[in-house]
Specification:
mainly alpha; two-stranded antiparallel ribbon; 15 helices; 2 strands; globular
Length: 294
């Protein structure tokens, strides 16, 4: 989940869903509330730990943080020097995720179909939005964290991509790279507030409208494919404060047009190979998750 969330376009929530821990994750997070203070007072810290499924959350959090921090630097390198290859891998990964999430829907109806289509349109529209200029204002970073963390636990919506759109991704990656404790703590505080609030809504939706919720998540994942399509045409750019030119708005194109526009190898063979590896990685992960749950 941490490695996925480090890449703008891939959702850690998708990985959680495929590995079979998604509903347990949402349920555990939603248990964190003010009633824990009463439990702590009456029954002690052991009861609090059991109520929030502490062992599960702690192991997951450690794994996410270690992978996120270590992979973000590698992700930045790969996105800069080998964008087609890394996007191809994640395209295959997300493509397989669609099949997995969709098959969880027990009954298709008019409502689930419409919900899926609306979610596809919304997710696709989000991927076409231009990113904002980088902003390192503390309040803005707090707000961006609260919004992005909600996306991070939604299959199909990339929290890292939301940070890019809001202009906070560079600030956050720099904070982790330079160990800027102030900005990291601001981000963590915003993420905690957003996560605790949104998890309660998700828990209620899974309990009362599971099929519709799964249909919406399926649509989100389908719509997000536009963002991670490997071949892009840059429509507009921006020069940041360090004088580096970065894309603001891009559109998906066919490999042939990519070669024609940029006079570069579209790397179709390697792209197909990595798509296949990503696709079958999810199939294997699903099998492991199924065996673990049984």
């Amino acid at each position: 989940m941490g490695a996925a969330d480090a890449v703008p376009g891939v959702s850690g929530g998708t990985i959680a869903f495929i590995s079979g821990i998604y509903e347990e994750l949402i349920s555990s997070i939603s248990q964190v509330n003010f009633s824990l203070l009463k439990t702590l007072k009456n029954d002690g810290i052991k009861s609090v730990w059991e109520q929030v499924n502490g062992n599960f959350l702690l192991s997951l959090l450690i794994g996410i943080l270690i992978s996120f921090v270590s992979f973000m630097r590698l992700a930045n390198y790969l996105l800069e020097h080998h964008p087609i290859l890394i996007w191809s891998f994640f395209f295959g990964l997300v493509l397989a995720s669609i099949l997995y999430v969709a098959k969880q829907i027990k009954q298709w109806s008019f409502i689930t179909i419409i919900s899926t289509l609306l979610a596809v349109f919304l997710a696709y529209y989000i991927t076409t939005l231009p990113s904002l200029a980088n902003n390192d204002n503390p309040f803005f970073l707090f707000l961006a964290a609260a919004i992005a963390i909600c996306a991070m636990i939604l299959p199909g919506i990339s929290g890292a991509f939301i940070l890019v759109l809001l202009g906070a991704y560079k600030t956050l990656s720099t904070a982790f790279h330079d160990l800027n404790i102030k900005n990291i703590l601001i981000f963590v505080a915003g993420a905690i507030i957003g996560l605790l609030s949104f998890s309660k809504l998700l828990k209620w939706l899974f309990k009362n409208h599971k099929n519709t919720t799964l249909a919406i998540l399926t649509g989100f994942i389908i719509g997000s494919l536009n963002k991670i399509w490997p071949w892009k045409e840059t429509l507009s750019t921006r020069v940041d404060s360090k004088g580096i030119e970065t894309p603001v708005l891009q559109q998906s194109i066919f490999p042939e047009k990519f070669t024609e526009l940029y006079q570069l190898d579209a790397q179709i063979g390697f792209a197909i190979l990595l798509m296949s590896i990503g696709f079958f990685s999810i199939i294997i992960l699903e099998k492991i998750g199924s065996n673990t749950n049984t």
